[in-house]
């Protein structure tokens, strides 16, 4: 190991650091979005595309999973800056043809960042990397399918193949894909969710009986209190700010819980309103709690304890709908405030102020995202959220509920359709009844286990339906070596990324239609369907001519590959599926709970909402038939002296591993990405200064160390002892074994690091070694970073 990181195409020495603005969106956002779009699409195409974005007769935004308002309340421009960027990224006129691959040997491409690779344009035809070849070369679709099918059929066991999914895949493609994979004989269906909201899904399934959020957009509008914990909506779910603004106008209070003062929560100018453009905007958060990274479990135990002390409990709800309240109350009676203050970095007064906001609200919506789910104790934290919500009866009534805010535009839909390595027995039974074959019952590999299986030679074929596994997964060097260990890696993609250039012995890139493109598979206009973060399902139709005549839809690719691989085994209707996706929707209606009359319902304006028993009728489909309080010990991260707790997050100019540009406007960063945000006192305490170049070295408790070189130190308003830097540049630092208990999600927001003077600056000059001494940490625990 110790391979150098690819970064020769970005001049990181040019990064500029300025002040973060205190208001977000407004005219700047509109301008930035349009400039970006017009640059890559031209004026006419931009207008044509954006007019159809998030409209009932148009296509669903490829960005995040935030829901659309009812059709009657939709704005003619129902999108945000980052939605426009997501669309532009796909609908760009830049094309990448076979000449590109002739010019660039793999050795060159391997040295490029995801930014450079993505900027080259849309992939226009299938490409193959033959064993031992130096270049990708064109391949016919037939030969490509034969190659994959040959590898799959040659495996000793179907479990030697891994079928990954990113969360953009439509419901139709996802349903056909999982059917193919299970008919082939494995449940190895890891997905991006394993790295994302898995902790949420696990915690909610165990406590309320369903792994999805319980609120609608209307509930947010009607809430008395909206809590936004571990989430940066100004960048990652920008239209959520519009909903928060409306809630606020209706009298709600807003509590932000975040180590960082994220700009969108502090001030917001709605770009869709004249008032927003000319005025000063709305201050959204009434209270911001600058919690220490990973302090939320302790914080919510403290809030729970105070609510109990004040008897701010909905006793009627607790008595009729829940189990385990007494044990929870007993546990919190012993709360140790010293531990709470250490874990949260907050004063007791701050915690009390937040708890009062809960006490004074009779309709609370609790929203969260990656700041909560990507820690070792994430499942426990989400369960503690549930405890507090249940105690006050804030579920299954207007203006209240649990609101995990999902990431990818169809990540929730993919799960509903069966993209899950641990699909429920009832789902597999329904599949069996509908299609007459015996799906495998053993759980399959999740993302982290898939990496181990590839690394150890137990998996030999990797198939990716979208996504960028190599860059998104933790422990980049380990993951890259695992991929290189495969016999075959295949990616169904729109744009080039690092997963295409860090390959198995043979590799394929299969170019797919994007969501903005007209899908004429089978000679007819096809539509697909997607599900948003609030369980609303609706149709999506792309308006644009495809980037190339050689592109195929994901449905087409899955069905044709299934035919090539399975032959006539199981007699599944692949040709029928491909010729009219309605045939898939009819099967979805028979297999997936809540999807009766699916084909008809997705076409209603605004679609339909999937059933959610806790939301709809306060019934809880757990084993006990009740919502369950849980007891979790407080888990305090103990970071040894001289180390920082690093969270890895998104800049304003990226969608996961797709990098749109090099600015993070809301945090004052321009022209670079290798920056690390640290409290000014920590910078001084560690013997560094603003602007120093450092290497980030992560420490894991087995003694192993990982380095990500060359970050500029940026003083930033974050709690002492905490730091932040962008993903995916920091993924080499996340140990594969560092995952959340119960969900196995990489703990990419709890990385213990030390800073070292950068070994080589751009000019090749080494910096003087650090003068101050770094004390060694507390050795009491075998796991140096976690103590209970
Ligand atoms: N433009 C854009 N939109 C996106 C994405 C994108 O990359 N770009 N990605 C999509 C995807 S897949 C996802 S999952 C979502 C991600 O949406 P977010 O979860 O908002 O994404 P992150 O940038 O990871 O931000 C995590 C937030 O949690 C805070 N945080 C970190 N650690 C803690 C902690 O311990 N406690 C608390 N309370 N807060 C903490 C961080 O300061 C940050 O504000 O966005 C989706 N939407
Ligand atoms: N350190 C760290 N790591 C993280 C995270 C973090 O916060 N910190 N976040 C995690 C999270 S929340 C997530 S969701 C994962 C994301 O993991 P992934 O979903 O695997 O990654 P993306 O970057 O979203 O995938 C982008 C690629 O998808 C392909 N693509 C785009 N559109 C389409 C399409 O329409 N069809 C097809 N077939 N392909 C398409 C393009 O080739 C593009 O390069 O990363 C995780 N990794
Ligand atoms: S909020 Fe999300 S879904 Fe809506 S336009 Fe913006 S990126 Fe797209
Ligand atoms: Mo995500």
Question: Could you give the topology of this structure?
Answer:
Blueprint: E1 16-17, E2 24-25, H1 27-41, H2 43-52, H3 81-91, E3 95-96, H4 98-103, H5 106-109, H6 114-119, E4 122-123, E5 127-129, E6 137-138, H7 141-154, E7 161-165, H8 171-184, H9 198-208, H10 217-222, E8 225-229, H11 233-236, H12 239-249, E9 253-257, H13 263-266, E10 268-269, H14 274-278, E11 287-289, H15 296-309, H16 315-321, E12 322-323, H17 325-333, H18 337-344, H19 348-359, E13 364-368, H20 370-373, H21 378-391, E14 401-404, H22 411-416, H23 425-435, H24 447-455, E15 461-465, H25 469-472, H26 476-484, E16 488-493, H27 498-501, E17 506-511, E18 528-531, E19 536-540, H28 554-566, H29 574-579, H30 582-591, H31 598-601, E20 608-609, H32 613-617, E21 627-628, E22 636-637, E23 644-649, E24 654-655, E25 658-659, E26 669-670, E27 675-678, H33 680-685, E28 693-699, E29 705-715, E30 722-726, E31 751-757, E32 786-787
Parallel strand pairs: 2-10, 3-4, 7-15, 8-9, 8-13, 9-11, 12-21, 13-14, 15-16, 16-17, 23-30, 27-29
Antiparallel strand pairs: 1-26, 5-6, 5-17, 18-19, 19-20, 22-32, 23-31, 24-25, 27-30, 28-29, 28-31
Helix pairs in contact: 1-2, 1-3, 2-3, 7-28, 8-28, 9-21, 15-18, 15-19, 15-21, 24-26
The structure holds ligand MGD (2 copies), iron/sulfur cluster and molybdenum atom.
């Amino acid at each position: 190991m110790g391979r150098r990181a690819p970064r020769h195409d970005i001049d990181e020495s040019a990064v500029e650091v300025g002040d973060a603005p205190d208001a977000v969106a407004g005219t700047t956002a509109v301008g930035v979005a349009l400039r970006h779009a017009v640059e890559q699409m031209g004026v006419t195409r931009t207008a044509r595309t954006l007019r159809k974005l998030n409209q009932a007769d148009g296509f669903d935004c490829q960005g995040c999973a935030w829901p659309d308002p009812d059709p009657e309340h939709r704005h003619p421009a129902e999108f945000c800056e980052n939605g426009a960027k997501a669309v532009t990224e796909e609908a760009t006129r830049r094309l990448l043809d076979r000449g590109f691959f002739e010019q660039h040997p793999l050795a060159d491409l391997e040295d490029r960042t995801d930014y450079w690779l993505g900027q080259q344009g849309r992939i226009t035809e299938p490409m193959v990397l033959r064993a031992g070849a130096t270049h990708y070369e064109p391949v016919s679709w037939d030969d490509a399918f034969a190659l994959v099918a040959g590898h799959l059929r040659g495996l000793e066991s179907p479990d030697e193949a891994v079928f990954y999914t990113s969360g953009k895949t439509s419901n139709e493609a996802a349903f056909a894909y999982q059917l193919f994979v299970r008919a082939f004989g494995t449940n190895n269906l890891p997905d991006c969710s394993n790295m994302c909201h898995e902790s949420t899904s696990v915690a909610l399934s165990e406590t309320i009986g369903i792994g999805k959020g319980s609120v609608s957009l209307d509930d947010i509008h009607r809430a008395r209190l909206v809590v936004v914990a571990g989430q940066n909506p100004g960048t990652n779910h920008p239209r959520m700010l519009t909903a928060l603004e409306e809630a606020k106008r209706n009298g709600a209070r807003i509590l932000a819980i975040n180590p960082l003062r994220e700009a969108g929560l502090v001030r917001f100018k709605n770009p869709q309103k004249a008032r927003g453009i000319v005025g000063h905007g709305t201050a959204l958060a009434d209270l911001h709690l600058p919690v220490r990274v990973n302090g939320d479990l302790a914080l919510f135990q403290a809030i729970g304890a105070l609510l109990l002390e004040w008897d701010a409990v909905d006793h009627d709800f607790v008595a009729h709908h829940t189990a385990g309240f007494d044990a929870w109350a007993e546990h919190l009676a012993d709360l140790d405030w010293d531990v709470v203050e250490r874990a949260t970095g907050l004063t007791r007064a701050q915690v009390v102020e937040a708890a009062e906001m809960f006490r004074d609200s009779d309709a609370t919506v609790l929203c969260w995202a990656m700041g909560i789910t990507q820690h070792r104790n994430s499942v426990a934290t989400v369960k503690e959220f549930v405890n507090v919500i249940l105690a006050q009866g804030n579920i299954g009534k207007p203006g209240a509920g649990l609101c995990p805010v999902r990431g990818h535009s169809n990540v929730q839909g993919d799960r509903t359709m069966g993209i899950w390595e641990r699909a429920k027995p009832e789902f597999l039974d329904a599949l069996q009844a509908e299609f007459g074959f015996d799906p495998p019952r053993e759980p399959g590999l999740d993302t982290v286990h898939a990496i181990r299986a590839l690394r150890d030679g137990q998996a030999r074929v990797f198939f990716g339906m979208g996504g960028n596994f190599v860059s998104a997964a933790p422990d980049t060097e380990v993951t890259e070596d695992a991929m290189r260990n495969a016999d075959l890696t295949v990616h169904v993609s729109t744009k080039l990324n690092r997963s295409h250039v860090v390959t198995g012995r043979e590799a394929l890139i299969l170019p797919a239609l994007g969501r903005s493109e007209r899908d004429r598979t089978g000679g007819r206009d096809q539509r697909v369907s997607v599900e948003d973060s609030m369980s609303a399902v609706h149709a999506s139709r792309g308006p644009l001519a495809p980037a190339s005549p050689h592109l195929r839809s994901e449905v087409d690719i899955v069905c044709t590959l299934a035919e090539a691989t399975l032959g006539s085994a199981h007699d599944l209707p692949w040709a029928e599926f491909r010729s009219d996706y309605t045939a898939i929707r009819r099967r979805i209606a028979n297999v997936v709970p809540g999807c009766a009359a699916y084909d008809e319902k997705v076409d209603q304006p605004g679609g339909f909402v999937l059933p959610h028993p806790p939301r709809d009728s306060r019934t809880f489909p757990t084993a006990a038939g009740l919502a369950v309080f849980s007891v979790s010990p407080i888990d305090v991260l103990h970071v040894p002296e001289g180390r920082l707790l690093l969270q890895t997050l998104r800049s304003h100019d990226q969608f996961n591993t797709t990098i749109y540009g090099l600015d993070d406007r809301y945090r004052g960063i321009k022209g670079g990405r290798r920056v690390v945000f640290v409290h000014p006192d920590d910078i001084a305490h560690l013997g560094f200064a603003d602007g120093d170049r450092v290497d980030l070295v992560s420490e894991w408790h087995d003694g192993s160390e990982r380095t990500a070189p060359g970050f500029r130190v940026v003083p930033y308003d974050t709690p002492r002892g905490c730091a932040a830097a962008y993903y995916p540049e920091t993924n080499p630092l996340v140990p594969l074994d560092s995952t959340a208990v119960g969900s196995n999600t990489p703990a990419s927001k709890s990385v213990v690091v030390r800073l070292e003077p950068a070994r080589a600056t751009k000019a090749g000059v080494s910096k003087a070694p650090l003068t101050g001494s770094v004390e060694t940490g507390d050795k009491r625990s075998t796991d140096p970073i976690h103590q209970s």
